[in-house]
Design goal:
The chain is an alpha+beta fold. It is about 30% helix and about 25% strand. It has 12 helices and 21 strands. The strands form 5 sheets. The protein has a 7-stranded antiparallel sheet. Strands 7-3-2-11-21 form a 5-stranded parallel sheet, sandwiched between helices. A 4-stranded mixed sheet has the order 1-10-9-8, with no helix packed on it.
């Protein structure tokens, strides 16, 4: 059995994700002795699977545009983002040996398309700066006279004068985000705002979603509406039907705009033919109907929709499937056209938080100094990344929040 030891360092960083790694590197490069405590077998576990393993490192935009993509407490991030902008992030990774490229929507990826390169470069730079990594489990933050005194782990006590909690939210528990940091913060008197999923698949009561389970749509426009019928999101991209409803990049993005399932009844509409306006689509329908004029209606849609979707379109159009194509009325054709431009998906609610990419909610930012990321309640206690009540839309914004808040905390540890 390992003997319980007492170690001493200047700063302890709890959590080896994006924010923790950035903070530990920053503090160590300032000459501080830093110990990074991570309970997984290796650092950057969630980072290694983001963006389907490609890692959307950040979004290359100015701070004003950036803050428009942060529905959760954007003002709090103003200082951190101005101190460490997306351009600074680009320079940081380039000099850490990760060449970058920019794709659609200003999303920035490693040239290699490999998330491991990002995580490995951070770990290498961390070790080069002289910081140490301890694979152990933080159990309690020790406080004396209103200031931090150390961390108790399952391997002993680490004495220090500053501690950063960068443990992430409660989404993706398999990557080690178990909510420990939220518990530490609460135990030390911090207010925790309600935790809920953001960037999450959506459940639907429409039985036809399950009927089309596994069927993907590419190059469609997904639009989301709130209960009053107001458009809250619209974007072109891809999505997929599942046994519970819908998922895929477009759906995850839309879900971040649905922030009040308790009182709102959200719904989605899919434009299956965004490249054609109604006039052009009608001309296309007439051409197809002419081509298949002697067939039954159900057998005349093969050029317009995927095989899996045709029975659903037939049913929702209200046109009996055995109607001969040449006897489909103009009203019926308009009904079908409307369906192709605005295919409805009612939303029951989000999938459980464990399936979310990001947690919304966390440590109340009113109790954290935005100029340093230090707690206003406990001297020497810092927070960075997703443990804070800040979250953004998809596209590299959430990782930039981790880099910027981690950098700022690391400069003050």
């Amino acid at each position: 059995m390992m003997s319980m030891s007492t170690r001493r360092v200047d700063a302890v960083v709890v959590g080896g994700g994006a924010a923790g790694l950035m903070a530990a590197i920053t503090a160590a490069e300032r000459g501080r002795s830093v110990l990074l405590v991570e309970h997984e077998k290796f650092v950057g576990k969630k980072l290694r699977i983001t963006g389907k393993g490609r890692c959307n490192v950040f979004n290359m935009c100015d701070v004003k545009t950036f803050l428009r993509n942060v529905p959760g407490n954007p003002k709090f991030l103003y200082g951190a983002l101005n101190r460490f902008t997306p351009e600074d992030t680009a320079a940081f990774f380039e000099e850490s040996g990760v060449p970058l490229k920019t794709e659609r929507g200003n999303r920035v990826f490693p040239v290699s398309d490999n998330a491991h390169d990002v995580a490995n470069a951070l770990e290498k730079r961390l070790r080069r700066a002289g910081a140490k990594i301890a694979i152990e489990n933080a159990e309690e933050i020790l406080v004396r006279d209103g200031a931090v005194a150390g961390v108790r782990t399952d391997a002993g006590v680490i004495e220090c004068e500053s501690i950063l909690i960068a443990t992430g939210g409660i989404s993706y528990p398999l990557t080690g985000s178990t909510g420990d940091g939220i518990r530490f913060a609460r135990d030390l008197g911090h207010t925790i705002t309600p935790l809920r999923p953001s960037l999450v698949p959506l459940e639907s009561d429409a039985d036809y979603c399950a009927q089309m389970q596994g069927f993907s749509l590419k190059n469609v426009t997904l639009t989301a509406y709130d209960g009053s019928g107001k458009e809250i999101f619209s974007e072109l991209g891809e999505m997929m039907f599942t046994h519970f409803g819908v998922t895929g990049p477009l759906v995850l993005s839309a879900s971040a705009h649905m922030r009040d399932f308790e009182t709102q009844q959200y719904r989605l509409e899919i434009d299956l033919k965004p490249g054609l306006d109604e006039k052009k689509l009608d001309a296309r329908l007439l051409r197809d109907f002419e081509k298949y004029k002697n067939r039954d209606f159900a057998n005349a849609l093969c050029d317009l929709a995927g095989r899996t979707m045709i029975p659903v379109l037939v049913k929702l159009s209200g046109i009996p499937e055995d109607t001969k194509v040449n006897s489909v009325t103009r009203e019926q054709r308009m009904e079908l056209l409307h369906l192709l431009k605005a295919f409805p998906v009612p939303v029951r609610g989000p999938r459980p938080v464990a399936e979310a990419i990001v947690t919304s909610g966390g440590v109340d930012v009113r109790e954290v100094d935005p100029r340093s990321m230090m707690s206003k309640l406990v001297s020497g206690l810092f927070f960075a990344g997703e443990v804070l009540d800040v979250d953004a839309y998809t596209g590299g914004f959430n990782l930039q929040i981790a880099w910027s808040t981690g950098r700022l905390a690391g400069s003050n540890l």
